[in-house]
Amino acid sequence: MDMEDNGKIFFLRIGSNKEKEYVKKMGALFSGLLVKANYFEASPGMLSGIFLKFDSLKSPIGYIIDPVTYVFKLAPDYLHSWQKINKDEAEERIRSDLKLRKNDALPNAWIRKIQNPTKKQKNKVEIFNISKSYRHLADRYFPDNVANIAGNRSINNSDFDDATISSFVERVISYQKEAITGRYDTSRYSDFKDVIPEPITILSPYFLIENHEDLDLMQKIWREFDSQYKDENGALVLQCTIGFLENNLNLLLDTLESNQKSKIFFWIDGFDEEKASDSHLGAYVEFVEKAFLRGKKVTNLYSGGLTPFLFPFGLTGMVNNIGYGLQREAEPVRGGIPTAQFYIPTLHVREQVLTSYDLFIKNDIGKTKENFYKEICSCPICREGIKSGVKDFIPFYGSVDYPKTNPDSLKKYPTPVALKRCTYHFILSRLTEYKWAKNASKQDVIERIKEETTIWKTNKSHLEKIQAILKL
Ligand SMILES: [Zn+2]
Question: Which of 115, 194, 395, 460 yields a CA-CA distance of 20 to 30 A from 100?
């Protein structure tokens, strides 16, 4: 690993084909790329190509495939999608994809007519079926008795006996190792196979921990992972609710410490760094500090605005998405109109462009060009668009248009160029924060937060909270 990075890492998560452009241009500036297994399954060719290309450049350091095993404990609806299919094949397809028996009844709501079908769709219907990628993952991860449950009901703790856990862990490890190499594993590529890189880190399977029973299952999984995968690049994944973390901090740390692996990737559910209570934010910081003192290298899979500040306090790594805000729940949220969001680097929050503008005015900051660069941002994108001060902000970052298909619509959409500017500004801002934080001292962090709280008159309670916690 690059010595300059002090062993610290910052990974970029790719979440959709639309983000390809950003990854191609900016990906090499990160320690590596991370992709969720369900998305990898949907675009394996494109993603393999990107990973191989970055590897040939020897930068970034590598890629990680997040096995996202937790989804199989969510309500089965989350694994389904509407799929168009010939009317005659509809029932049979659902039965075969969901591994149902011939006599099992299908809910009526799972088959529907297509609204305004085109000529080609005349004999087609839509079925609410398990997505192809989740079907494939379930079959790769679980022995048949558990794989057959996927999409029908949530998997629960009692579905796992020791034999199932052992097989599950083995399968999840080999899935990650073979996701790309397996694609080239034919006689034709046999020479080539050795040069195709495996993931830089192999992640343990994981499920959300909400109670002690969940922790017991995860400890069995971690132990099994520890004994099956000896390589140092293996990491345990901890996904737990903020409430459980706060109330069971020492138990969690003891449990993690009882395992060999020093790398921990974590995801705290129900936790928004900006809006969190003092005690939740305090529990997060305490977790990072204490895990570090116990010799663990902890990486936040869904890092928020304040996370970079924790590097000098024991954090090893962070991961950020291109596509959405700074925090993410285990249960996915669907839909909504895309809005242009602006990351405010001196406030460490991401807000809609209009909201950001209101905040600048309310706080009387960024009036002149010089003020804007000092008090808000001086990245190359801002320098290109903010020529005289905050009055350039909305025309540059917030341009909107009516949808072409419905010009009378009352809803306006951000223009592609506005979305692009916001995204590049976001990625650059986070890289700048990371590069600063990974070499900063505790004192540097405390001074920086102090300085930032003097810029802002309002909306800075999260900065004051973290300031008080880090000073304790
Ligand atoms: Zn900027």
Answer: 115
